[in-house]
Amino acid sequence: MTTPDMTLLIGNKNLSSWSLRPWLVLSHYGIAFAEDHVRLDVPDDRATIAARTPAGWVPVLWHKGDAVWDSLGICEYLADLYLERHMWPEDARARAVARSVTAEMHSGFAALRNEMPMYFSEEKEATPSEACRVNIARIQNIFKDCRDEFGDGGPFLFGAFSIADAFYAPVVSRFRTYGVTCEGAAADYCEMMWSLPSMQQWYRGAQAEVLEAEA
Ligand SMILES: N[C@@H](CCC(=O)N[C@@H](CS)C(=O)NCC(=O)O)C(=O)O
Questions:
Q1: Neighbour tally for 55: CB within 10 Å
Q2: In angstroms, rounded to a whole number, what is the distance separating the alpha carbons of residues 202 and 104?
Q3: Domain match, 99 and 77 both
């Protein structure tokens, strides 16, 4: 077996929502890569993270000796590198909306992030503020609108899997963890995403980390 020329440095699978995004893109498309880890819940690893990452956070992709960082920077890099995989939708209008909702997730939803941090394999409780409820409603509308308008041809937001799905994957987990109920197309989308083999693989990794920490 040849060693993959890509290594993705990620944080804890249970906690690192930013790490999940490029990991899911690589895994879903079956691209060979090695995984390397830092622990976000171990204070000593702060120095490791600072020493091993250009911007002081994970994820970072190492490809042929060069670093690419930030979840969106990495996914864009992969989309360029593997043009034939169509990681963004082929249709120009769908692609524009996919980029818009991905950017919206990358730069927004602060209340949701703060009040419902990702715990991929655990059940948690939260009492969402008004701002958080607005975030949740907006995301549910994104799921419904994308499925309604662009969902022909597959079960994902834009039919076929795209980078947009990877960016919303942590929210699918948060909705589950915190018992946020969705209806109709949004509920179907969340169920489908949760049952994806790559999401379940990440889940098993997250579960193993939690069990190890408890042991
Ligand atoms: N905008 C960055 C955010 C990355 C980020 O915040 N990563 C967190 C883990 S999920 C991190 O590395 N934190 C470093 C630390 O806690 O010391 C991205 O999209 O990759």
A1: 12
A2: 24
A3: no
**21 within some domain:** yes
> How far, in Å, from the CA of 55 to the mean position of ligand 1?
9
Which residue has the CA at smallest separation from atom 5 of ligand 1? 57
Give per-residue pLDDT as tens, 12-54: 999 999 999 999 999 999 999 999 999 998 877 788 889 989 9
Mutation pick for ligand 1 pocket among 15, 18, 37 (CB with most ligand atoms within 8 Å): 18
**Strand 6-10 with 34-37, pairing:** parallel
Which residues sit with their C-beta closer than 6 Å to ligand 1? 11, 16-19, 40, 46, 49, 57-59, 70-72
Q: How far is the CA of 42 from the centre of ligand 1 (A)?
A: 14
By DSSP bridging, strand 60-63 and strand 6-10 are antiparallel
148 shares a domain with 70: no
Strand, helix or coil for residue 121: coil
